[in-house]
Design a protein that fits this description.
This protein has 14 helices and nine strands. It has a five-stranded parallel β-sheet with strand order 2-1-3-6-7, sandwiched between helices. It has a two-stranded antiparallel ribbon with strand order 4-5. The chain has a two-stranded antiparallel sheet with strand order 8-9. Strand 8 and strand 9 form a beta hairpin.
Protein backbone atom coordinates (compact mmCIF):
# COMPACT_ATOMS: atom_id res chain seq x y z
CA UNK A 1 0.00 0.00 0.00
CA UNK A 2 2.81 2.43 0.91
CA UNK A 3 4.53 1.57 -2.35
CA UNK A 4 1.37 2.40 -4.31
CA UNK A 5 0.89 5.72 -2.52
CA UNK A 6 4.52 6.65 -3.15
CA UNK A 7 4.17 5.87 -6.86
CA UNK A 8 1.02 7.98 -7.08
CA UNK A 9 2.76 10.90 -5.37
CA UNK A 10 5.69 10.62 -7.78
CA UNK A 11 3.39 10.30 -10.79
CA UNK A 12 1.33 13.47 -10.16
CA UNK A 13 4.14 16.04 -10.81
CA UNK A 14 5.32 14.04 -13.84
CA UNK A 15 1.77 14.02 -15.23
CA UNK A 16 1.45 17.78 -14.67
CA UNK A 17 4.79 18.34 -16.42
CA UNK A 18 3.76 16.15 -19.36
CA UNK A 19 0.39 17.91 -19.79
CA UNK A 20 2.09 21.30 -19.59
CA UNK A 21 4.72 20.44 -22.20
CA UNK A 22 2.20 18.78 -24.51
CA UNK A 23 -0.13 21.76 -24.28
CA UNK A 24 2.69 24.22 -24.97
CA UNK A 25 3.94 22.24 -27.97
CA UNK A 26 0.54 21.50 -29.50
CA UNK A 27 -1.42 24.58 -28.42
CA UNK A 28 -0.63 26.57 -31.56
CA UNK A 29 -1.42 23.74 -33.98
CA UNK A 30 -5.19 23.78 -33.61
CA UNK A 31 -5.19 20.15 -32.46
CA UNK A 32 -6.25 21.01 -28.91
CA UNK A 33 -9.86 22.19 -28.81
CA UNK A 34 -9.54 23.61 -25.30
CA UNK A 35 -6.71 26.00 -26.18
CA UNK A 36 -7.85 29.38 -27.51
CA UNK A 37 -5.23 32.01 -28.29
CA UNK A 38 -6.64 35.41 -29.28
CA UNK A 39 -3.92 37.95 -30.03
CA UNK A 40 -6.32 40.90 -30.43
CA UNK A 41 -9.13 41.23 -27.91
CA UNK A 42 -10.67 44.22 -29.70
CA UNK A 43 -10.50 46.46 -26.63
CA UNK A 44 -6.84 47.55 -26.83
CA UNK A 45 -6.04 45.52 -23.72
CA UNK A 46 -2.53 44.83 -25.01
CA UNK A 47 -1.87 48.52 -25.64
CA UNK A 48 -3.39 49.87 -22.44
CA UNK A 49 -1.58 47.48 -20.10
CA UNK A 50 1.75 48.45 -21.65
CA UNK A 51 0.86 52.11 -21.50
CA UNK A 52 -0.05 51.65 -17.83
CA UNK A 53 3.54 50.52 -17.25
CA UNK A 54 4.67 54.06 -18.12
CA UNK A 55 1.82 56.10 -16.58
CA UNK A 56 2.48 57.28 -13.05
CA UNK A 57 0.74 59.35 -10.40
CA UNK A 58 -2.63 59.81 -12.09
CA UNK A 59 -5.55 61.38 -10.26
CA UNK A 60 -8.06 58.64 -11.09
CA UNK A 61 -7.74 55.05 -12.24
CA UNK A 62 -10.90 53.54 -13.71
CA UNK A 63 -11.14 49.76 -13.84
CA UNK A 64 -13.84 47.29 -14.82
CA UNK A 65 -15.58 45.87 -17.86
CA UNK A 66 -16.58 47.50 -21.15
CA UNK A 67 -18.90 49.62 -19.02
CA UNK A 68 -15.66 51.22 -17.83
CA UNK A 69 -13.60 51.56 -20.99
CA UNK A 70 -16.62 52.68 -23.05
CA UNK A 71 -17.82 55.18 -20.42
CA UNK A 72 -14.95 57.00 -18.71
CA UNK A 73 -13.18 59.19 -21.26
CA UNK A 74 -9.93 60.64 -19.87
CA UNK A 75 -10.09 63.42 -22.46
CA UNK A 76 -13.23 64.78 -20.78
CA UNK A 77 -11.74 64.61 -17.29
CA UNK A 78 -8.61 66.38 -18.56
CA UNK A 79 -10.74 69.44 -19.35
CA UNK A 80 -11.25 69.75 -15.60
CA UNK A 81 -7.57 69.26 -14.76
CA UNK A 82 -8.06 65.60 -13.79
CA UNK A 83 -5.47 63.14 -15.08
CA UNK A 84 -7.23 59.80 -15.61
CA UNK A 85 -6.39 56.38 -16.98
CA UNK A 86 -8.80 53.56 -17.87
CA UNK A 87 -7.91 49.88 -17.30
CA UNK A 88 -11.29 48.54 -18.36
CA UNK A 89 -11.52 45.58 -20.76
CA UNK A 90 -14.22 43.49 -22.40
CA UNK A 91 -16.29 41.48 -19.90
CA UNK A 92 -13.65 42.03 -17.24
CA UNK A 93 -14.85 40.53 -13.97
CA UNK A 94 -13.27 41.06 -10.54
CA UNK A 95 -11.17 37.93 -11.20
CA UNK A 96 -9.44 39.75 -14.07
CA UNK A 97 -9.46 43.12 -12.30
CA UNK A 98 -7.46 41.49 -9.52
CA UNK A 99 -4.66 40.60 -11.95
CA UNK A 100 -4.43 44.16 -13.27
CA UNK A 101 -4.57 45.72 -9.82
CA UNK A 102 -1.95 43.39 -8.38
CA UNK A 103 0.52 44.04 -11.19
CA UNK A 104 -0.18 47.64 -12.22
CA UNK A 105 -1.74 49.57 -9.32
CA UNK A 106 1.58 50.35 -7.57
CA UNK A 107 3.03 51.60 -10.88
CA UNK A 108 0.09 53.81 -11.83
CA UNK A 109 -0.19 55.03 -8.21
CA UNK A 110 -3.54 56.85 -8.54
CA UNK A 111 -4.97 59.17 -5.93
CA UNK A 112 -8.35 57.46 -6.38
CA UNK A 113 -9.60 54.17 -7.85
CA UNK A 114 -13.06 54.00 -9.42
CA UNK A 115 -14.06 50.34 -9.60
CA UNK A 116 -16.95 49.87 -12.04
CA UNK A 117 -19.43 47.21 -10.93
CA UNK A 118 -22.33 46.01 -13.07
CA UNK A 119 -25.01 43.43 -12.23
CA UNK A 120 -24.35 41.37 -15.36
CA UNK A 121 -20.58 41.28 -14.80
CA UNK A 122 -20.73 40.25 -11.14
CA UNK A 123 -22.98 37.38 -12.30
CA UNK A 124 -20.67 36.37 -15.19
CA UNK A 125 -18.10 33.56 -15.15
CA UNK A 126 -15.50 35.68 -16.99
CA UNK A 127 -14.27 32.93 -19.32
CA UNK A 128 -13.96 35.19 -22.36
CA UNK A 129 -12.23 37.92 -20.35
CA UNK A 130 -9.83 35.39 -18.81
CA UNK A 131 -8.74 34.16 -22.24
CA UNK A 132 -8.30 37.71 -23.55
CA UNK A 133 -6.15 38.53 -20.55
CA UNK A 134 -4.01 35.41 -20.84
CA UNK A 135 -3.26 36.21 -24.48
CA UNK A 136 -2.70 39.96 -24.25
CA UNK A 137 -1.32 40.86 -20.82
CA UNK A 138 2.21 40.18 -19.57
CA UNK A 139 2.34 36.84 -17.71
CA UNK A 140 2.43 36.98 -13.92
CA UNK A 141 1.73 34.88 -10.85
CA UNK A 142 -1.63 36.65 -10.27
CA UNK A 143 -2.58 35.70 -13.83
CA UNK A 144 -1.82 32.02 -13.21
CA UNK A 145 -3.90 32.15 -10.02
CA UNK A 146 -6.73 33.79 -11.95
CA UNK A 147 -6.75 30.91 -14.43
CA UNK A 148 -7.03 28.37 -11.62
CA UNK A 149 -9.74 30.34 -9.85
CA UNK A 150 -11.79 30.46 -13.04
CA UNK A 151 -12.61 26.75 -12.50
CA UNK A 152 -12.75 26.30 -16.24
CA UNK A 153 -10.72 23.70 -18.15
CA UNK A 154 -10.53 25.81 -21.30
CA UNK A 155 -9.01 28.73 -19.36
CA UNK A 156 -6.52 26.46 -17.58
CA UNK A 157 -5.43 24.81 -20.84
CA UNK A 158 -5.08 28.19 -22.55
CA UNK A 159 -2.97 29.37 -19.61
CA UNK A 160 -0.64 26.38 -19.98
CA UNK A 161 -0.06 27.42 -23.57
CA UNK A 162 -0.27 31.23 -23.44
CA UNK A 163 1.87 31.96 -20.37
CA UNK A 164 5.06 30.16 -21.54
CA UNK A 165 4.43 31.25 -25.14
CA UNK A 166 4.25 34.91 -24.19
CA UNK A 167 7.26 34.60 -21.89
CA UNK A 168 9.40 33.09 -24.66
CA UNK A 169 8.06 34.87 -27.74
CA UNK A 170 9.73 38.05 -28.97
CA UNK A 171 6.66 38.73 -31.11
CA UNK A 172 4.57 39.16 -27.96
CA UNK A 173 6.62 42.21 -26.99
CA UNK A 174 6.34 43.89 -30.40
CA UNK A 175 2.66 43.77 -31.29
CA UNK A 176 0.69 46.71 -32.59
CA UNK A 177 -3.03 47.38 -32.33
CA UNK A 178 -5.44 49.66 -34.12
CA UNK A 179 -5.69 52.70 -31.84
CA UNK A 180 -8.34 54.69 -33.72
CA UNK A 181 -10.61 56.21 -31.06
CA UNK A 182 -8.26 55.11 -28.26
CA UNK A 183 -7.20 57.51 -25.51
CA UNK A 184 -5.54 56.52 -22.21
CA UNK A 185 -7.43 53.23 -22.01
CA UNK A 186 -10.78 54.58 -23.23
CA UNK A 187 -12.10 53.38 -26.59
CA UNK A 188 -14.66 55.53 -28.38
CA UNK A 189 -17.44 53.58 -30.09
CA UNK A 190 -18.73 54.51 -33.51
CA UNK A 191 -21.76 56.74 -32.99
CA UNK A 192 -24.92 54.63 -32.98
CA UNK A 193 -28.35 54.88 -31.37
CA UNK A 194 -30.29 52.27 -29.43
CA UNK A 195 -33.84 51.29 -30.29
CA UNK A 196 -35.57 50.37 -27.01
CA UNK A 197 -37.28 46.99 -26.93
CA UNK A 198 -39.10 44.93 -24.28
CA UNK A 199 -36.85 42.86 -22.03
CA UNK A 200 -37.68 39.83 -19.93
CA UNK A 201 -37.54 40.24 -16.17
CA UNK A 202 -34.40 38.69 -14.67
CA UNK A 203 -32.93 38.29 -11.21
CA UNK A 204 -29.32 39.33 -10.63
CA UNK A 205 -27.39 36.31 -9.33
CA UNK A 206 -23.84 37.31 -8.25
CA UNK A 207 -21.31 34.48 -8.40
CA UNK A 208 -19.59 33.76 -5.07
CA UNK A 209 -16.16 33.56 -6.72
CA UNK A 210 -16.64 37.02 -8.23
CA UNK A 211 -17.64 38.42 -4.85
CA UNK A 212 -14.58 36.78 -3.30
CA UNK A 213 -12.40 38.36 -5.99
CA UNK A 214 -14.05 41.75 -5.43
CA UNK A 215 -13.22 41.48 -1.74
CA UNK A 216 -9.59 40.67 -2.54
CA UNK A 217 -9.45 43.60 -4.98
CA UNK A 218 -10.73 46.11 -2.46
CA UNK A 219 -8.44 44.72 0.24
CA UNK A 220 -5.44 45.13 -2.09
CA UNK A 221 -6.40 48.70 -2.97
CA UNK A 222 -6.67 49.49 0.72
CA UNK A 223 -3.33 47.80 1.43
CA UNK A 224 -1.79 50.15 -1.15
CA UNK A 225 -3.17 53.08 0.83
CA UNK A 226 -5.44 54.29 -1.99
CA UNK A 227 -9.09 55.32 -1.52
CA UNK A 228 -11.66 53.76 -3.84
CA UNK A 229 -15.32 53.83 -4.75
CA UNK A 230 -17.53 51.25 -6.42
CA UNK A 231 -19.55 52.85 -9.21
CA UNK A 232 -22.47 51.41 -11.15
CA UNK A 233 -22.72 53.17 -14.54
CA UNK A 234 -26.04 54.10 -16.18
CA UNK A 235 -28.00 51.54 -18.14
CA UNK A 236 -31.05 52.18 -20.27
CA UNK A 237 -34.22 52.55 -18.26
CA UNK A 238 -35.72 49.44 -19.80
CA UNK A 239 -32.71 47.33 -18.72
CA UNK A 240 -32.82 48.70 -15.17
CA UNK A 241 -36.55 47.96 -15.05
CA UNK A 242 -35.89 44.37 -16.12
CA UNK A 243 -33.87 43.60 -12.98
CA UNK A 244 -36.20 42.20 -10.33
CA UNK A 245 -33.74 42.66 -7.47
CA UNK A 246 -31.62 45.70 -8.32
CA UNK A 247 -31.95 47.26 -4.81
CA UNK A 248 -30.67 44.01 -3.27
CA UNK A 249 -27.67 44.01 -5.63
CA UNK A 250 -26.84 47.60 -4.77
CA UNK A 251 -27.18 46.86 -1.06
CA UNK A 252 -24.78 43.93 -1.52
CA UNK A 253 -22.23 46.21 -3.23
CA UNK A 254 -22.33 48.62 -0.29
CA UNK A 255 -20.86 45.85 1.80
CA UNK A 256 -17.63 46.07 -0.24
CA UNK A 257 -16.98 49.77 0.26
CA UNK A 258 -18.37 53.15 -0.74
CA UNK A 259 -20.87 52.45 -3.50
CA UNK A 260 -22.33 55.03 -5.87
CA UNK A 261 -25.10 54.84 -8.42
CA UNK A 262 -25.63 58.26 -9.92
CA UNK A 263 -28.22 58.09 -12.68
CA UNK A 264 -28.61 61.16 -14.85
CA UNK A 265 -32.23 62.01 -15.64
CA UNK A 266 -31.28 63.78 -18.88
CA UNK A 267 -29.98 60.53 -20.41
CA UNK A 268 -32.43 59.21 -22.98
CA UNK A 269 -32.45 55.55 -24.05
CA UNK A 270 -32.83 56.42 -27.74
CA UNK A 271 -30.42 59.36 -27.86
CA UNK A 272 -27.58 58.54 -25.48
CA UNK A 273 -27.01 54.76 -25.72
CA UNK A 274 -25.79 52.52 -28.52
CA UNK A 275 -27.17 49.38 -26.87
CA UNK A 276 -29.08 48.59 -23.71
CA UNK A 277 -26.11 48.95 -21.37
CA UNK A 278 -23.54 51.20 -23.10
CA UNK A 279 -23.60 54.95 -23.60
CA UNK A 280 -22.82 56.35 -27.02
CA UNK A 281 -20.40 59.28 -27.23
CA UNK A 282 -23.17 61.83 -26.71
CA UNK A 283 -24.10 60.02 -23.51
CA UNK A 284 -20.45 59.72 -22.46
CA UNK A 285 -20.04 63.49 -22.76
CA UNK A 286 -23.09 64.17 -20.58
CA UNK A 287 -22.37 61.53 -17.96
CA UNK A 288 -18.64 62.19 -17.58
CA UNK A 289 -19.19 65.91 -17.17
CA UNK A 290 -21.83 65.11 -14.56
CA UNK A 291 -19.81 62.69 -12.46
CA UNK A 292 -16.66 64.77 -12.76
CA UNK A 293 -18.42 67.76 -11.21
CA UNK A 294 -20.65 65.89 -8.75
CA UNK A 295 -18.42 62.98 -7.68
CA UNK A 296 -14.81 62.87 -8.85
CA UNK A 297 -13.70 66.45 -8.17
CA UNK A 298 -15.32 66.58 -4.70
CA UNK A 299 -13.64 63.31 -3.78
CA UNK A 300 -10.24 64.42 -5.06
CA UNK A 301 -10.54 67.74 -3.28
CA UNK A 302 -11.29 65.92 -0.01
CA UNK A 303 -8.14 63.80 -0.16
Amino acid sequence: MKHLVRNIILFIPLAILFVTLATFLLGGTGLLRNVTYIADSGDNLYTKTREADTVQNVDVLFIGSSHSYRTFDPRIFARHGVKAFNLGSSNQTPLQSEVLLRTLLPKVNPRLVVFEVHPDIIAYDGIEAAIYQLCNVKPSLPMALMALRSRNWRVVMTALYAIPRNLLSSEFNHRSENTVGYAAGFLEHELEYYSPQPLDTVAIQPLPRQLDALRRCTSWIQACGIPYILLEVPDTKNLLDSYSNLPEFQSLMRGYGKFCFKPLDSLDDSLHFYNQDHLNQHGVELYDEYICDSLILPLLNSL
